[in-house]
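Sequence in, structure out. Go.
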Amino acid sequence: MRGLIIGVCVLFSIIFIVSCDSVMPASLEEDQLLDGPVSGLTGAEHRQFLLGDAAFNTEIFTGQSGLGPVFVATSCGSCHAGDGKGHPFTTLTRFGQSDASGNKFLAQGGPQLQHRALPGYSGERLPDGASSSRFVAPINTGLGFMELVSDVDLLAMADPEDIDGDGISGIVNWNTIPSYVKVADGAVSHEGKYITRFGKKASVYNLLQQTANAYNQDIGITSSFEPVDVYSHLEVDPEISTQTINNVVFYLQTLKAPIQRSTEREEVIKGKDLFVGISCEKCHKQTLRTGNSHIAALANKEFHPYSDLLLHDMGSQLDDGYTEGTAKTYEWRTAPLWGLGLSPNSQGGSYYLLHDGRAHSIEEAILWHGGEAASSRQSYEQLSDADKELLITFLKSL
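Output:
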């Protein structure tokens, strides 16, 4: 009897293991994931990364923990699933400014529309006369590398007068920054403004400003950095600790860069050659370099975002009538292309590209390009179908 019982138990164990193997999803390769830390962190840095990860991806706010009362989302991760691009359901609406004279609607809820609200409250509505634009949340990975590109390098890439005559005249965005932001060593200023680089309009200086502002504007959470409540417009006690903000900033700084896939495939290599050949790489620059950093894993590293982090005239079809800093209504920061091929993983299996998600394929996004990019778009349109497919294959490998 004992032998029979043991045999049954062994058989049950085998069936259980086989059953689990058949239903558990296979683990994804590293190049299929956008989350995860950059390599080379110290033990202490890795612990802070995990604390920031937990705050960003698992903490869901309620009315009891400070949510709202008006808000866009209830957590950071709800807009950045798997640290990837957002879905139109979580699109942000920015409003209030159509020129560089400043936002005149700050007292009416600007610069961001909090359209959701706790019970008993009403979400905001766009004020009469305010210009607005809808922004899909970007991917989070590799941000720490982009934060460390020097102002000198950005200015070297800029060509506001198109001196080289190539039709590309990228410019930096000069903007005012909050008093709590510490400018980087070697930062360049102009008439009291600094070069900003994050956001669709490159209007945010660094990841501390981005994080504190997102908690405040997206979730209605005040902090020691952004203490003014978005509903009452009064300064209130912090609803999130400074340490948690710092942990999330560190998490965003040390998320790994997206890893390109299938780099040895002939189709990918040929597609990259076409990408460079029709001058896409003039704005979507393959390689940038970080400067010094107290995070050794990020210091003085080459990385490949396929962006120059500059503003470019994208033509009338992408003119949304809204701007931030010194950017014009038709100027947008070059979107980094790394992670592009993984976008559907966080966007419900589909593509929602460009600043507002209007493009539902990579080709459609290309065809919306105008202004400084019109020549590259026309060159793409003149490619054979086979070459177009090669170029798209390359972009999907990023």
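Check: The longest helix spans residues 2-23. The longest strand covers residues 92-95.
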